[in-house]
Input
Amino acid sequence: MSTLPEPLRTALALARTGVPVLPLRAGKTPFGNCHRCAGNACGGRPNMKSAGPCRCPGVCHAWAAATTDPAVLTSPAWTAAWHRAVTVAYHPGGAGLTVVDLDDAAAVTWARETLPATRTMETTRGEHWIYRGAMTSHNAVRPGVDIKSTMAYARWLGPGTGTMTALPDAVRALAVKEPSPARPAPQTLAVPTGVRNGKCPHRTPTYLARGIAMAEQRITAASNAVHATVYRTFLAVLSTHGRCGCLTDAHITRLFTAAQTKGETLRHCTDAWTNARTRLGL
Output
């Protein structure tokens, strides 16, 4: 074991704890694809939504190469990469984690005033705040703040300090809050008039709450055909509650967040919601 390069020793230790890892080369970037995978000629990982080594023996497809398999990590191709590596990266989403990457002092100050305390790691310019729970990765959710979780990698900077806490709604909300004009935020439905007090006429408010919770669960449980599942779920919710005036921004945001956690983009969510409304004539 002592003959192994230091990055590989660190990677193996992390892999034993269930953290998928990969090597980073000079410049702190992943190794480029091998000739078999150049230009994604091999097709890449299925939908590029799950971590794991490519079928080729190389360290390909960036975050999707991350693995916990010691046989892969110590294979000849990977060992050669580890000898050239300058540090270790990991796939936070694959470990059930989310990294809030704070890139400067102002971002760190904002986090300390806004977010629940959790485990932190110092970076060159700021800090990484690590939460237990995965979500869709997003860059530049606010000045100096990126979210790294599914379909992303983060540098391993050590064990950090503090107790890791559950991913808060305040972080999830960053993914749908104040988007660019090209990706509009979910809006309250424009429902037909004539609904008294905006109350759900079907049964009780509990009926709506249960329906939203079941819709979230249906999306979260999807193991394939996620986009189709999201659309069908949106369609079911709108067919039941789209005309009664009871859906709010908070309900829609919960559904969008569940979909984004499964890898859907905000644009996909918005398009699915709009298409469902159009089909129902809303």
Notes: The beta strands are 21-25, 29-30, 87-90, 97-102, 119-122, 127-132, 138-142, 145-148, 154-155, 165-166. The mean pLDDT is 82. The chain has nine helices and ten strands.
